[in-house]
């Protein structure tokens, strides 16, 4: 940093020595988080395991390393810039998380308060991530490929259909009844038919995911286009706009907030279809991995796969949020998000 | 003081178009009932003339402007621009609506550029967008979004969006209605200066009798709904006009009388 403002140094000066008041304030939570993770590490190492797990030692050491990092980060948060701020903001969560994993460790691996094969300890899940990594990665890739393909097709078709029926009454005449009849049907209801009419289970699943995505996107795009104020069209027309301009530069941008609601809904329902399709037909992907783990009563594999799946889903949602924030900056201040 | 004669009045560059409104009647259907709004309105506006429309609220002024813009077809009668019948909107007749209706997803600059973009000539004419934004005094707001503007600023953007097209007929629906009185007076002189420089034909709707008298060559007073032309008053005064001018004060008194407000004078 090249410049210091007066308030910066003034604020930093009393922090040079940690006072008792600081312990209960911003430092206190960070120290508690560090302690929670230290407790987790020690609980791994102190008591013997009731079962046979190979990663208990490394997990314990890993937790202690994390505790050390939190401690270091907390004490030097003022000098770490945005990373230090982020740590401070998340410190309460780190406390809760550390406490929960400690409790989990003790309740499963150490004293078996929870029935064992069904509630594997953290080290068992860590073991899956280290020992079964290739298979898990293959499944993740397969899931992403299938989901992405189906979602993009469904969103594109839904968007184009929605704009067409929102714009043209003639197209709407033909599409509305079909939409009303087929749309509300859960996409999974098509599963049995899709799997024997499509040439491959992969294409069948892509179709189903596209269907689950396409319906909400179509309906919301349509309602978005239909609800654009006619005053916008009047303005554009008096300025010499042709119909193509009215669609591309007036109707679509005005409808975009609705379109994004449809994209979010479509994402949710397509995840459901993805997992079911993978469990039933496609012999790959996280859904299939779950099914396979269940067949072998490999409970830790199931938990490991579930965690990955939830990370992927929330990652996809976050990505969509980011895209929306970027495309709809103009909405900031118009509506409250 | 020089009194403007007819000969001097047509020395403006005649880029303005002639506007003929002939026996126009219009009505709306509301709940099965027919609401007559315009009743046999005939008006001929010479190229480059500045005409103000005055009338009670809801009498049909905005409706008449929509017909001139070509956004609607009259139920009877015809409208012509330079002898050509008006059948639809055309960028030679640009409207500044009563509401600014800026596109909220476009910045000020992109809003102003709308007309040029719609006609596919933006690439060659980008400098004109900057010029009109400068003209309405919003240069430092070119990248702002409409929700970041005040009502008066939004109205100025709407004016800039119209001017950038170099219209032959400029149609204004209370464009200064939302401005504070100081900005309003400044914008009035801007408008007159602009009109004198460019020479477009102007049709202005206003609620403000004084504004009509300061700006227009002719003031048309409309009756209650359905609107009929009650009076067609020539304002033979040179520009810039002075608000305290006794001639204008006399006209103002007359017009207020026509609008049924003599008691307040
Ligand atoms: N699209 C429409 N459908 C039905 N009635 C309409 C429509 N537009 C206007 N009207 C009616 O026509 C009448 C005239 O409306 P208009 O907007 O032309 O009034 P105005 O003279 O511009 O009033 P103001 O000065 O308040 O703006 C009103 O009574 C209104 O209810
Ligand atoms: Mg009006």
CATH superfamily of the domain at 19-103 and 168-264 in chain B: P-loop containing nucleotide triphosphate hydrolases
Superfamily (CATH H level) name of the largest domain in chain A: MetI-like
Largest interface: A-B, 24 and 28 residues
Radius of gyration of chain A: 27 Å
Q: Tell me about the biggest sheet of chain B?
A: 6 strands, mixed
Known CATH architecture of the domain at 19-103 and 168-264 in chain B: 3-Layer(aba) Sandwich
Secondary-structure class of chain A: mainly alpha
Oligomer: heterodimer
Helix content of chain B: 25-40%
Radius of gyration of chain B: 18 Å
Task: List how many beta strands of chain A DSSP finds.
Answer: 0
Kindly identify the CATH topology of the domain at 19-103 and 168-264 in chain B: Rossmann fold
SSE order of chain A: HHHHHHHHHHHHHH
Figure out the total of helices of chain A.
14
How confident is the prediction overall: mean pLDDT of chain B?
86
Ligand species: adenosine-5'-triphosphate, magnesium ion
What can you see in these coordinates?
The complex is a heterodimer of chains A (337) and B (265). Chain A has 337 residues and is mainly alpha-helical. Chain A is built from 14 helices and no strands. Chain A has two domains: 2-116, no CATH class; 133-331, MetI-like fold. In chain A, helix 3 (26-46) packs parallel to helix 5, helix 11 (230-238) packs across helix 12 and helix 12 packs parallel to helix 13. Chain A is flat, with a radius of gyration of 27 Å. Chain B is an alpha/beta fold. Helices cover 32% and strands 24% of the residues of chain B. Chain B has nine helices and ten strands. In chain B, the strands form two sheets. A six-stranded mixed beta sheet of chain B has the order 6-7-8-3-9-10, sandwiched between helices. In chain B, helix 5 (126-135) crosses helix 6 (151-163) and helix 8 (209-215) crosses helix 9. The longest helix of chain B is centred in the last third of the chain and has 18 residues, at 181-198. Residues 1-13 of chain B have low confidence and may be disordered. The complex binds adenosine-5'-triphosphate and magnesium ion. Adenosine-5'-triphosphate is lined by residues 28, 30, 35, 37, 55, 57-63, 98, 225 of chain B.
